Amino acid sequence: MTAERMNGKELAATKHAEMKVRVSELAKSGIVPGLAVILVGDDQASQTYVRSKQKMCEKVGIHSILKHLPADTTEEVLLSHIDELNNDPEIDGILVQLPLPKQISEQAVIEAISPEKDVDGFHPINIGKMMTGEKTFLPCTPHGIIELLKASEVQIAGSHAVVVGRSNIVGKPVGQLLLNEHATVTYCHSRTVDLRAITTQADILVVAVGIAKLIKKEDIKPGAVIIDVGMNRDENGKLCGDVDFDDVEDIASHITPVPGGVGPMTITMLLENTIESALNRS
Ligand SMILES: Nc1nc2c(c(=O)[nH]1)N[C@@H](CN(C=O)c1ccc(C(=O)N[C@@H](CCC(=O)O)C(=O)O)cc1)CN2
């Protein structure tokens, strides 16, 4: 058996076409969705992601602006930019690209963004609503994972989903979204004593730890659905995930490749949140 590849690039392209139509419908009522992206510093990967976000916005007709601030920007200055954008009626979504330089508290920045414009879905109010199952902006990577699972017709309800990783932007929220879809969820992390004993029980295994090719065939149950959120470089400098794709491909039933799996869905869900936010304009 060779696993079915869950193609995030393809699903993203389908969703982009749908969003383009929604945006042109909105334009008839004089609304152009607006996204503000704030990038602090010159991290190469962050610059690439920000460029992709802007390119995708342009593709679907979302107006985007970029505030590129120097690496030594103070928290106070960054917060003043956020305040200005919170009060800008043309801006429906605000995103501060993470990670931030050490002198700035990520939590303070996340909490300064108006929850109504928090298209990353990281604000504590939106996280709280996600936990209680209220309609809100959902964190983009976790939401993209759920969309990929649904598009591949993977049975989530009643499954045992194991999440390896407990970050605020992926691990914790993806577990919550899987729980909201009626999975039984187990979290594993760096202090988990016997990781393999747990990952081998997973019907759906989500791995988001940032360790190249950590998960091998011995770590998974035959027929499991594997979601790889990792973005690492292997010994030859080639992009790879947290799962050893070649090793598990013949054992899993479905698998997300890296690149082209979860990654493209992150930006897609960000655009969807921005359009939703524009629809809420009063
Ligand atoms: N404010 C935020 N910061 C960060 C987020 C986020 O959701 N909000 N997530 C990540 C980075 N990220 C988006 O910002 C992101 C990561 C990866 C991809 C992606 O499409 N990856 C491609 C491969 C890209 C490559 O070749 O290097 C793929 O997997 O196919 C998109 C967005 C951290 N920061």
Automatic annotation (TrEMBL):
Can you cite an annotated GO cellular component? cytosol
Q: In which pathway does it act?
A: One-carbon metabolism; tetrahydrofolate interconversion
The Tetrahydrofolate dehydrogenase/cyclohydrolase NAD(P)-binding domain, residue ranges: 139-280
EC number(s) on record? 1.5.1.5, 3.5.4.9
Q: Which UniProt keywords apply?
A: Amino-acid biosynthesis, Histidine biosynthesis, Hydrolase, Methionine biosynthesis, Multifunctional enzyme, NADP, One-carbon metabolism, Oxidoreductase, Purine biosynthesis
Q: Tetrahydrofolate dehydrogenase/cyclohydrolase catalytic domain: which residues?
A: 6-120
Which reaction(s) are listed as its catalytic activity? (6R)-5,10-methenyltetrahydrofolate + H2O = (6R)-10-formyltetrahydrofolate + H(+); (6R)-5,10-methylene-5,6,7,8-tetrahydrofolate + NADP(+) = (6R)-5,10-methenyltetrahydrofolate + NADPH
InterPro entries xref list: Aminoacid_DH-like_N_sf (IPR046346), NAD(P)-bd_dom_sf (IPR036291), THF_DH/CycHdrlase (IPR000672), THF_DH/CycHdrlase_cat_dom (IPR020630), THF_DH/CycHdrlase_CS (IPR020867), THF_DH/CycHdrlase_NAD-bd_dom (IPR020631)
- Kindly state the subunit structure of this protein: Homodimer.
The record's section on HAMAP family has: THF_DHG_CYH
The UniProt similarity line reads: Belongs to the tetrahydrofolate dehydrogenase/cyclohydrolase family.
UniProt name for this protein: Bifunctional protein FolD
| Organism from which the protein derives | Alkalicoccobacillus porphyridii
Q: Lineage in the entry?
A: Bacteria, Bacillati, Bacillota, Bacilli, Bacillales
